[in-house]
Write a structure and sequence with these properties.
Blueprint: H1 2-8, H2 15-32, H3 35-55, H4 60-80, H5 88-106, H6 111-119, H7 130-160, H8 163-172, H9 175-192
Organism: Actinokineospora terrae
Transmembrane segments: 26-52, 59-78, 98-120, 141-161, 167-189
Pfam families: DUF3159
Amino acid sequence: MSDSLSDLLGGRRGALDATAPPLAFAAAWLLTAAIGWSTAAALAAAAAVAVIRLVRGEKATAVLGSMTAVAVGAAVALHTGRAEDFFLIQLLSNTASALLWAASIAVRWPLLGVVVGLLLGQRFRWRRDPALLRAYSRASWVWVLQYALRTTAFTTLWWLGSVTALAITRVALSWPLVALVIAVSAAVLRKSLPTNHPGLRHPQLPTPAEPQPKTA
């Protein structure tokens, strides 16, 4: 199940997006200590990644989203004059994600189920399967913990103003952490489902109640 879940959620396709721009920013900062050059390096790296992804035939909307995130981070750093603020967008987005995923579990619409269900073309039929709903809720907590870990790490290093450490942490908490989260959440899904359940692709919908015989 972990392999299929990894494929559904994007696999390693986002690794370059998450690592190249911050590494370029940190490298330029170490060499020049100039925010202008550092943001230019990050934008150049993001543009190179975008070209690679477009050549591979990936969707332009996904490429544009990645470029926009880097551009916003660069704009914030240039506006404040603080190099560490290049990573502020990551801090805020992970905080928001942790809260959103936790809220989705509380209202019984776990986001892992929403995402996987849409990718599988099931829409929301999985919610009518009590076993799948419970499994997706439990597995979604793994993603909440991921975002909480990132928020804690980014907040601490941002407060300390450590640009190099922020870049290294951004890389360490990108694909390596996502790979771990996918594997753990897949294991939680598998363990949470009954042994006779057909799996994520086959929600077991409740059968209609049989009509009761009329009594005289």
